[in-house]
Amino acid sequence: MALRETYTPRGEQRKLVENLLGKGASLKGDSIDVSILDPPRMCKSFIVGKCPYDMLDNTKENMGKCPKWHIEKHKLIYETAKESGIKMPRQNYELDYMNDLQHFVGDCDQRVRIAEERLDYSEADKQLLNDLARTVENLEKTISITSEELNVVQEEKRDMQRSIELNEELQKFILEKETVSERYSATLERLNTVGQQKLQVCEVCGAYMSKVDNDRRLADHFLGKIHIAYAAMRNTLAELREKHSI
């Protein structure tokens, strides 16, 4: 009866190397060519840590497949070279990884600022509502006057050209009133919704949260894949900035 092979971390690494590079292959510090990792098309985030594209996969913020290469063999080469003390460009590519994280976190911070500005409606939106209501009122008066003049011209049948012009103006005013009315309704609905829900913006992922949510709904948010992804990106970015004094 054959003895079952004993599990060891070194044995598992050997199996992984053989699966990726072929049976009998090995990675030794003095035989590793790290130049294979340097091409710009190589995803440094993937080989150093976690690629943000992968972290946001299957979420509402899914941006599709990363445009750079994700190759397991290269990740293994990187990890083995690092363990062997082999220095690679740009602080073992950690500066490239940091740049990728800064891009994603920076975009998220911008969304947070925009979302917070949308919640700050107190004076600006009140003024907007007043302006829209006043515009609708003026358009209603204009429509009434134009309609009356059109009726007079049509009844007297004295000026067909003027009748056509008045009808075109009337339709234009009616369309403009409908557009402004729709904008007024949408603005009012948004203000009512925001006021009722007492929304706030999550500073980690940029999502809207209700201040009156129960503990379960808050837990669902904080355990959501998007929130966890951005929290991890921010933590890793902070660690890299501290490590490299940036």
Descriptive overview:
The chain is mostly helical. The chain has two domains: 9-118 and 225-243, no CATH class; 123-196. 66% of the residues lie in helices and 2% in strands. It has ten helices and two strands. It has helices at 9-21, 44-48, 52-55, 72-83, 89-92, 94-119, 124-156, 160-197, 215-222, 225-243; strands at residues 199-201, 208-210. It has a two-stranded antiparallel ribbon with strand order 1-2. Helix 7 packs antiparallel against helix 8. The longest helix is centred in the last third of the chain and has 38 residues, at 160-197. It starts with 8 loop residues before the first helix and ends with a helix. Mean pLDDT is 83; it is low at 1-10 and 22-26.
Summarize the structure.
With 246 residues, the protein is mostly helical.
What distinguishing features does this structure have?
2 strands, mainly alpha, 246 residues, two-stranded antiparallel ribbon, disordered N terminus
